[in-house]
Design goal:
The protein is mainly beta and 125 residues long. The protein has strands spanning 7-9, 16-18, 28-29, 32-33, 35-37, 52-55, 58-61, 74-81, 87-91, 99-101, 107-114, 118-122. The chain is built from no helices and 12 strands. Bound molecules: fe (ii) ion.
């Protein structure tokens, strides 16, 4: 059973999807069930800089910036409003700074995806 805003990944082809409308069916890709991606939280942070933080008018990945190299980088940052009616995503290349400007709404929840360390979230921006 999927819930709105859940992320799932296919461990065979690498496809990542996000649910916008919940349903009871099993999500399948390449003939196999997709893996639910459980976001990591602040408590799991060690050396890596992954938890999204709000600094002035930006969301930044890590209180110290996460690395952005070809081998290890942030693929996207997503923000969601407190009423869950607004969502915005910024996709990043490995030479971008892992930050997102806040323009249209004030987010309560931010999520980012690191190609090596998976999903990380901050639900209390
Ligand atoms: Fe990472």
């Amino acid at each position: 059973m999927s819930e709105r805003f859940d992320f799932y990944k296919c461990n065979l082809c690498g496809t990542i999807i996000q649910v916008f409308h919940r349903g009871d069916g099993e999500l399948v890709c390449c003939g196999k069930p997709m893996e639910y991606l459980q976001p990591h939280k602040q408590e799991e942070e060690k050396q890596e800089k992954h938890v999204p933080v709000k600094i002035n008018n930006k969301i930044q990945v890590g209180s110290e910036l996460h690395p952005m190299t070809e081998e290890h980088h942030i693929e996207f940052i997503e923000i969601i409003s407190e009423d869950k009616k607004e969502l915005s995503v910024k996709f990043l290349d490995n030479n971008d700074i892992p930050q997102m400007n806040l323009n249209s709404f004030e987010p309560k929840h931010a999520i980012e995806y690191c190609n090596l360390h998976g999903l990380w979230e901050n639900k209390d921006l």
